[in-house]
Amino acid sequence: MTPSPMNCQQWLDLLESFLDDELSSEIRHEFEQHTHGCSCCGHYLESYRLTIRLTRQLKREALPSSIAQRMREKFLQAIDREFHSREKEA
Ligand SMILES: [Zn+2]
Known about the structure:
mainly alpha, globular, single chain, 4 helices, binds zinc ion
């Protein structure tokens, strides 16, 4: 799978809009390409969706920002580690 030119940070910035179905079809396509080509973001999207679903089962509200924030931080750390391990391999 060819990785999309979109990077993980850009992907993360688009995540909310993607879930709200606010992306243009072109951007959405790029977003989906990155999701499939990048295991880091693919897993993040999965766990993000799961968290949203679980949260909505408890109460019909948006994901609490504290949880969203924590997931975001964890994810950024994961990306960071990923980049560092790639540097070592190179
Ligand atoms: Zn990514």
